[in-house]
Amino acid sequence: MESDSKVTFIGNYTYLDGKKVSAMVDCSQEIKYSTLIKNVGVKELMEHFPYYNWKRGDKNGLKMSDDYAVTFNSSFYGNVKCYYVYHSSMGYVWLVK
Q1: pLDDT digits (tens, 9 = 90+) for 7-42
Q2: Exposure b/e, 62-76, CB count within 10 A at least 16 = b
Q3: d(CA 45, CA 71)
Q4: Is residue 2 part of a domain?
Q5: Cβ contacts of residue 75 below 8 Å, gap of 6+?
Q6: Measuring CA to CA, which residue among 81, 86, 4 is closest to residue 41?
Q7: Which residue has the higher pLDDT, 89 or 81?
Q8: What percent of the chain has pLDDT over 90?
C-alpha cells in the first residue's frame, strides 16, 4: 500500500551524503512550525520525535513547537525540495515527492 504522504523521510545527517547536506544547510531558510506541519505532517513528526507531547490542548510536557532548541527549515537536498528539523545538533530530512 502506497503512502499518501507528500514527503519521504530519508534519514538524519549521519546517513546522508555530506556534500549534499552541507549545500542543503548553506542554502536553507528557517520556516515556521506551521509551515513544517502543513508540508511534512504531524504523523511523520510523531514517528521520529515520539517524546514530545502531541495532544492538542494538553498543557503537560514539551511540545515540539515550544522547544527553543529546535529549528524548522526548507531547502534542497541535491536538486530535490526538502524540509528538515534541526534537533540536538542533528538534522532529520524529508524530501518532497
Answers
A1: 999 999 999 999 999 999 999 999 999 999 999 999
A2: eebeeeeebbbbbbe
A3: 13
A4: no
A5: 24, 25, 27, 28, 29, 81, 82, 83, 84
A6: 4
A7: 81
A8: 85
Share of the chain above pLDDT 70, in %: 96
Range of the domain at 37: 7-96
Contact 38, 96 (CB under 8 A): no
Q: How many domains does the chain have?
A: 1
- Map grid coordinates 524530501 to a residue: 95
Q: Classify residue 53: in a domain, yes or no.
A: yes
Task: Give mean pLDDT, residues 62-78.
Answer: 95
Whose cell is 507528500? That residue is 6
- The whole-number pLDDT of residue 55 equals 85
